[in-house]
Amino acid sequence: MKTVKRTIGIMALAATMVLTVSCKDGNKNESTAPMSSEMHQESMDDKKDMAMNDNQDAKAEAILKDYFNLKDALVGDDNGKAKELGNTLAQSLKSFDASNYSDNEKSELNDIIEDATEHAEHISESDIKHQREHFKILSKDVTDMVAITGTQVKLYEQYCPMYDGGTAWLSKEENVLNPYYGSSMLRCGKVQREIN
Amino acid sequence: MKFLKIIAWLALVALIVIQFFPITLNESDAVPQSDFMVENQVPATIKNQLQVSCYDCHSNNTDYPWYSKIQPAAWYLEDHIQAGKDELNFNEWDTYSSRRKNSKLRSIIKQIESGEMPMDSYTLIHRDAILSDEDKRMIIDYITALKDSLE
Questions:
Q1: ipTM surpassing 0.85, yes or no?
Q2: What is the pLDDT of residue A54?
Q3: Is A16 exposed, middle or buried (0-12, 13-18, 19+ CB in 10 A)?
């Protein structure tokens, strides 16, 4: 009997505490302005210095390399590897710094990088169907990036009319290996443009 | 038996203690100029449906359910809302570049089509947030048209 009483006592105490706290919560609706999570530190000084430029080119090439590795994983229907490589690509994208480009190019590049990073991050945590959906937009982002940064490598823009109303991607080889279908339709597509 | 009792007491104490950890409420009276509805001429039915089905986690203003006052439910909600806003915040629509708007619209279409959004864990309690096939078709048609107009 004594235990029961004690239990009821504690329960009542708990209920009081819950109520007290919830009242306090109710008054607490300041400071809900959007946190500055979207703020970017893109205000690095414009150093027109060749070393930096080379460095930037290297970063763009690194992004391309990660993109091609990711593409190969999707061609191979390898969900786990694509996750890993999506993460690698996201890291390379984050370390890209557009400060050496003209204002117009800079804002375009920052925009591309932000979008591409989001898609790469999603690829790092999705099943293969989703990975391919994100890879479609990622491919457009990377293509647009290359249009600004340029690259040493010869690229082939390939196109498959069947996937999602027609979808493109980039490859280092002329030979078509489809990352959107993998083994189920490996050869679907054609080269629609050569870059370099 | 005594051992079990101790565990039960510890659990109860822990439950009480965590009630003292408040969360930051996601509430705001003002609808900013950058809001999706302000930016686009959204038909009333779709507007209402988006408000009910999406805005709790994808805007700066959540209509909290009663259990949001109790931990650990409050933490669970806080996490979900933060994740939702990171992905897409309708209140900040106009701050997105057209590239990102396109990406977001595409994801909205895909996720409504596949039924991933609104999430099951949300519609479990918010029954009015469930989208009928007709609702889905209407929203998808509208979002698709909006996306095409941006391209």
A1: no
A2: 61
A3: exposed
